Amino acid sequence: MDLTKTENTEKKTLKTEDEKLKEQQEENPEKKSLNIPTEEEIHDFKLEETEEPVKEKESIFDRLKKGLTKTRDSFTSSLTNLFTRNVKIDDDLYDELEEILISADIGMNSTIEIVDELRGEIKKRSIKEADKIYPVLKEIMIKNLDENNLNNEIKFKKGKLTVILVIGVNGVGKTTTIGKLANNFKNEGKTVMLAAADTFRAAAIDQLQEWAKKADVELISHKEGADPSAVIFDAIKSARSKDVDVLICDTAGRLHNKKNLMQELDKINRTIDTHAVNSNRENLLVLDATTGQNAVSQLREFKNVTEITGLILTKLDGTAKGGVIFPLQVEVEVPVKYIGVGEGIDHLQKFDSKSFVEAMF
Q: Coiled-coil stretches, from where to where (predicted)?
């Protein structure tokens, strides 16, 4: 066999193909600029794609810490300045510390209690340097939040309906919070239903419908202007027939001093008591953290007219007043059950004293 001839034939064929390609490029000049990748380049590109690092999922604590950025920046920068500027621990240091705690909306009573206990611990532990106060202060703040041993778990029991009535003034983020709450429960493996009993605010039903779609849960609603108690009656009936675990009821935003709205709330409570006998009950008050001490006033007033079993504090990511949790839970003695630290559907998380104080620092 003549190998030389075969080789020459192959070279000739290759040359012919090159000439054809050159002719095509001359006929179609726009194709001349195309850079066609080789098989080796395609392989390398695929490797690069595969080897791209996977983005780590943000942890609950990281999300909390990010959400409390404004509170932490204001609070810890003031503490750092105080503890590094003062070489000795004296009355001036304690006075300034009180001012810092009050400015973070921790409240007068809680502040006095924290500072008094800090004085005692510093003396007891013979602490001489101001920068050693940090861990002791954190420890006392956590203890202060937990001192009443309040249970902040939502009541659940297998095979038993849990009815959650969500109340609060207009603008605190009630409807949005309900959507996030529904998403949380669904992710925990519970079946959830929503009741659109805010029948007076324009577009409230539509807004809740959007959140129901996002959380992929069922919504029971009537027309705008319908009787809220009738909506809740139908929702209870439907939830019972479908063995739903959790029924979350939206209600109209109301002020404590509006007598007719408070009477309506009383009627809703009676409807639940009558038609959801033996169910687990929760009345959750939603408060806007950006209002600071005004949130404490709202809680006191609502407690005067209806039982509040827990709090949801929203918009913590938009304020430096995160310390308002202290007077709410410590002074008014109502457990904070959830906190909102962002706009996403998964940005509502269970409140934990230790994690919260750690994130503040």
A: none
